[in-house]
Amino acid sequence: xxxxxxxxxxxxxxxxxxxxxxxxxxxxxxxxxxxxxxxxxxxxxxxxxxxxxxxxxxxxxxxxxxxxxxxxxxxxxxxxxxxxxxxxxxxxxxxxxxxxxxxxxxxxxxxxxxxxxxxxxxxxxxxxxxxxxxxxxxxx
Length: 140
Prior knowledge:
The chain has helices at 20-27, 57-70, 109-122, 129-139; strands at residues 2-5, 44-53, 83-88, 97-105. The chain is an alpha+beta fold. It has a single domain, classed as CATH 3.30.1330.20.
């Protein structure tokens, strides 16, 4: 699962005072995920967050650890050190601070179940028009 925070226009960036705690909170929010699933319905196996902009690595590590401890039930305990962070002090053009998140979570199964159900429902049944066509064609 991918997430990006903060999703704002360049023009409105000047009205928002982004901080590392806010970015960390936003990146764990289901609304910022680029997949239609809720991470609270699963557990993270691994995750990484790449912060870009001028910020302290210590603050990034503290905030990430706080978020992991606060949501400990959403992280598997049998994979040690499953959260990694990195900081690049050069922000994207026009932005001051951003974070990109990549996580491997069991919650992604929601998305695949919905897709599977769509294709299962769309599959022609044995009494569908294809069988009728074959039967009619063979009768001639």
